[in-house]
Amino acid sequence: MSCRRLSPLVVSLRQASASRPRLTRRVIPWLAGSLLTSLTLANSTQAADLLAITRDALDTNAEIASIRSQLEAAEAFTDVERGALLPQVDLSGSASHNRTYSSQGGDFTSQTVTLQDPDDDFEVASIDLNATQALFSPTSAARLEQAREQYDQQALQLEVTRQQLLFNVSQAYFEILRAYEVLEARRAQEKAIARQYEQSRERFDVGLIAITDVYEAQATYDLARAQRIAAESNLQVRFEALERLTGRRYESIETLKEDLPIEPPSPSRRSEWMDIALENSPQLMLAGAGVEVARSEVDISRSRRLPTVQAFARYNYADSNQNIQEGHDSASQLGVQASLPLYTGGTTTAQIHQSTYLLESSQYDFEDQRRDTLQNVRSLYTEVINDVQTVAARKQAIVSNRSALEATRSGYQVGTRNIVDVLNAEQNLFSAIADYAEARYDYVLARLNLQRQAGVLEVDDIAALNQWLTEAELVYLSVSDVEDMEPVESIGEPPAPPEEALPAGSTDSLLNNGTLGNDGPLGNQGLNDAGDINTELPDL
């Protein structure tokens, strides 16, 4: 059999297996503790952070609990296979009451027989004690080695699932924050466009713009409102996804600080990350464990051609009160027996061929996993590097789109731009805000995924990221309507035309008396009040 270096994880699990309590001893307290904790958290209104939710998931996630039980079963199966190499002792006994009848002379022509009186009664009791000990049993030894390999495989599966859960919880958490920031952008966009729509109706009422401009504003507002509703729904769906991982409902969670450092990964070289993955990736080690399990199956198949040798000891004690054999007898045997399969109809040869092909298949699977791991690490490393630059570019795009919006508004005031240009500029700005949020969370998740693929994602990494969360602003499961949102009357209905057309020169008159001038309600100040969103944007 081949030897291989065990991973530190597998070694530690093997060392701890002897002292680990069985699942049956702790399943009831575990379930009771989980239920009590769930009830406690259900009544708590304190906002949850990423680290607390991660610990909840490690304690209550159903998939993790299932694999832990499978690991316990694999450990028990190792004990089962080990038992075949240990002494086997069995005791059997019997007791019987016997009555004999003997025939005497009779008239065969009349078919009559005279029987002896049934006074020949006796009892017999016996005890048999048998013991065997395997001296050479290659098949049993190979099965024990395979059971150990399967335990190692299950331990690695637990580690794969654990790191995947760490990433999944983080992904679900930041998807909530992503959905929240998109929702905030949609709310601000809806508010700004609603004010722009109201302004266009007022300008139409005084005959300054055509009805088509009002329709354009109304259509844009309806779209913004639909996008806001979809964003609210998406936020609730993201909360549900988080609950799926932990089995617990969170009413609010903390948000990510604006000053989160966006830095390249450390170590900074891609080749170093590839070396880390080859050394630590649990997915790769799991594929390697599959090769070892398949190799042990080949050893089992080949061992069926070898002889088996075992020592045996037998002891028999019998007691009887029969007249002729009254008394007791005892006998004992001690010896060695061996057996060698000579011909099994080709079954053993076929099993060897089958297991050899399965071993070859597992080796190809290992190579495929190795290539997949390296490709994922390379791709994620590149993604993190690109995300660092993307975040900076998205941040600058907000500044550029804000400037573009201000310029478009100024052009709209002097008549060089129309309402469609203003609405498009507003949408571009809010899209830039949403894109910036997307880029930040893409960076965070790509960074965590890179660590997971390399096999180095730990709770400590989650705790370090958790320090960049803040309670200053919380995300709540229940969403409310847009704050300070003024209802727009007659949404979906075309505005009524003005009762009287403005006479020639009336526009100049309105500008001169201030109604549409710089200080009028629809002048520069009015436009700023209706459409200026600088106060609603983060200070970037």
From TrEMBL:
Chief location: membrane
Keyword tags: Cell outer membrane, Coiled coil, Membrane, Transmembrane, Transmembrane beta strand, Transport
Species of the source: Pistricoccus aurantiacus
Disordered as annotated region, ranges: 486-540
Designated name of the protein: TolC family outer membrane protein
Family: Belongs to the outer membrane factor (OMF) (TC 1.B.17) family.
Subcellular location, record wording: Cell outer membrane
An MF annotation (GO) of this entry: efflux transmembrane transporter activity
Residue stretches in coiled coil: 141-200
Gene Ontology CC terms, in alphabetical order: cell outer membrane; efflux pump complex
InterPro entries found in the cross-reference section: OMP_efflux, T1SS_OMP_TolC, TolC-like
Source organism superkingdom: Bacteria
Biased amino acid composition, Polar residues: 506-516
A Pfam family it matches: OEP
Record's keyword annotation contains Repeat: no
